[in-house]
Structure formats: structure tokens, C-alpha cells
Amino acid sequence: MTTLRARSVWTAALAATAAAVAWSGTAVALAVAPGVTVLGGDTYDTEFIDGPFYLMAALLSLGLVAVAAAWSWRWAVAGLLASVGALTWGAAVCVRRYADSGWGDGLEVLVYVVPLGVAVAGLVLVTLIPWLRRRGPAVSGAVGR
Predict the structure, then answer these.
(1) Most CB within 10 Å of its CB: which of 46, 76, 97, 103?
(2) Distance CA 142, CA 145 (A)
């Protein structure tokens, strides 16, 4: 059985891990994006943030925030804010890269849907998980008795 202090330390570690996953995943997504590549003739491909790495960072950090929310909503909110900050930074760098390259057409701002979605989903999870935990039946003894 863990003490309250040990649980708080583990929850803080989960929140810090969520932030680290979001920041490092976003940094990798920005680093491995190829930019503007010529496909042949007059066709080009523009990618200023790598989608799979960016979404992986978002979903993994959201999962860690959800686990932290089961123990402490305060630490979960701290992890969520740090994760959303990292994802917003990545979106801002992506939009700036599009604008600097001259390839922007206005739709690149849709990259902000990811941090907005993580923020909304995270707030729902941080609210819902502690409520479900308080509402659920107390589990004691062996399963099935």
C-alpha cells in the first residue's frame, strides 16, 4: 500500500513524463519534417511538421495525463498545461515555417486543432476520471466473492 506522499510523488512524475513526452515528441516532429520537396515537374510536397510524431506526442501525453487524473487532478492539470504548451509551440513553428517559405495558403492554421483537441479531451478526462473514481463501488476482498 502506498502512502499519500508516495502517491503524490508518482503522480508528479506522471505529469512530468506527460510534459516530457509532449515536448520531446513535438521537437522530433519538427526536426524530421522534410520541408519542401520536389516530387517531379511542377509538383511539390510541403511538410513542416511530421504528423505521426506530432500525433504520437499528443496521444501519449494525453494518456499519461488521464492516468495522473486518477490520483490527483491538480497534477493532471499541470501535466495537461505543459503538454498543450508543447503542442501549441509545435503548431506555431509549423505555421511560421509555412509563412516563411511562401507556401502557406491559410489552411496551415488547422494544425492548431491538435493542441485544442488535446486541451478539450484532457479537461474532460481530468473532470470525468476523478468523478468516476468517487462514484464507483469500493473494491475489497477477492474478485468474485
Answers:
(1) 76
(2) 6
* 3-state SS assignment for residue 74: helix
Domain spans, the chain: 4-135
Query: CA-CA distance, 1 to 103, in Å (whole number)?
Result: 57
Instruction: List the chain pLDDT tens, one digit each, 145 residues.
Output: 456 677 788 899 999 999 999 999 999 999 999 888 888 888 888 888 999 999 999 999 999 999 999 989 999 999 999 999 999 999 999 999 998 888 888 888 999 999 999 999 999 999 999 888 877 666 555 555 4
Q: Is 128 helix (H, G, I), strand (E, B) or coil?
A: helix
What's the rounded Cα separation, in Å, for the pair 3 and 126? 22
